[in-house]
Design a protein that fits this description.
MetI-like fold; 2 domains
Amino acid sequence: MRKYQRRNFVKGLLFILPWLIGFAVFTVYPIIASLYFSFTEYHVTTKPQWIGLENYKKLFSDVLFVKSLTNTLYYAAGLVPIGLVVGLVLALLLVQPLKEIIFYRGIIYFPSIVPAYAFATIGIWFFHPYLGFINHILGFFGIDGPMWLSDENWAKFTIILLSQWGAGGTALIYMAAIKDIPRELYEAAILDGATRWQMFKKITFPLISPATLYYLVIATLGALQIFDLPQIMTEGGPANSTLSYVMYLYRHAFTYANMGYASAMAWILFIISMFLTFLIFRTSGRWVFYYGARR
């Protein structure tokens, strides 16, 4: 490089130096350290002792590890598709040509920025088995509502339902994708006599598939890391039926101070997350359509 180029390069490095230091200290170092700790017996107050793969071997003989992993996969299997449907339906409603549509968009999106603790507390009362609003409504139709969060068969599903409180974020992404679809495609379909369902199936859904790809990746990673709602609402009960993977990892790290075991759990979660992300991207070529792109 020439002298002035080197000078500009050094100045640029100095400007981003605070970020580089923060990235190295708070991101790179913890990642490397957790990988090392996962092969050690480390309880914070003692020095790490190298034990090789023992932590990883213990994981698969740990009943609660298997239980928490199963629960988390159940959460992911419910949260991702239900969230997609709810978000897409809301988006379709929010692109309607109404005068007060801006107000409705605000109402739909507002719950997404409410802290998890707030709506978890409200959700507990909504789904209270005896005093809750939901069972009260079901009672009007002569239906005996379930115990919801107090029943291990219903608890996870209840948390999945409550998670749709924040579907406004997904709706906003889909709304932007829908509004970006050229109007002439719908006009041509109407002239050809296409029904609303046919236009949705052949035009809308294929052209918002990039947004769906984004949603699947983000929602899957988020579902694998679910923590707030089960922690606040049930603390993993009843009978560990709502214990998520990250909750169990948190217990080992900050309740039992077993950082080595928790680090091993974190890397197992990382591998699972990477595998599912790779799977989504690997199959996306079959169903993701980019308008205007050559095939």
